[in-house]
């Protein structure tokens, strides 16, 4: 079965509609971090 890590995080409640999510890869794993709009400059 193929799982989508971001979908898992959304379903877990880590993110909600309108959140800005930074995606990075570390040790062959995707990491998701909620970012504030002001920190994207």
Features:
41 residues, alpha+beta, 34% strand, flat
Counting helices, strands and paired strands, the structural category is alpha+beta
Mean pLDDT: 84
Strands in their spatial order, largest beta sheet: 1-2
Task: Tell how many strands the DSSP assignment holds.
Answer: 2
Largest sheet: 2 strands, antiparallel
Measured on Cα atoms, how large is the radius of gyration?
11 Å
Order of helices and strands: HEE
The 3D shape can be described as: flat
Q: What is the CA–CA distance across the termini?
A: 38 Å
What amount of the residues lies in strands? 25-35%
Q: What is the number of independent domains? A: 1
Low-confidence stretches: none
Number of helices: 1
Helical content stands at 10-25%
Question: How would you explain this protein's 3D organization?
Answer:
With 41 residues, the protein is α+β, with helices and mostly antiparallel strands. The protein has one domain (5-40). Helix content is 20%, strand content 34%. The chain has one helix at 5-12; strands spanning 20-26, 29-35. Strands 1-2 form a two-stranded antiparallel ribbon. The radius of gyration is 11 Å and the shape is flat. The model has no long low-confidence stretch (mean pLDDT 84).
The gist of it:
The protein is α+β, with helices and mostly antiparallel strands.
Mind sketching the topology for me?
Elements: H1 5-12, E1 20-26, E2 29-35
Antiparallel strand pairs: 1-2
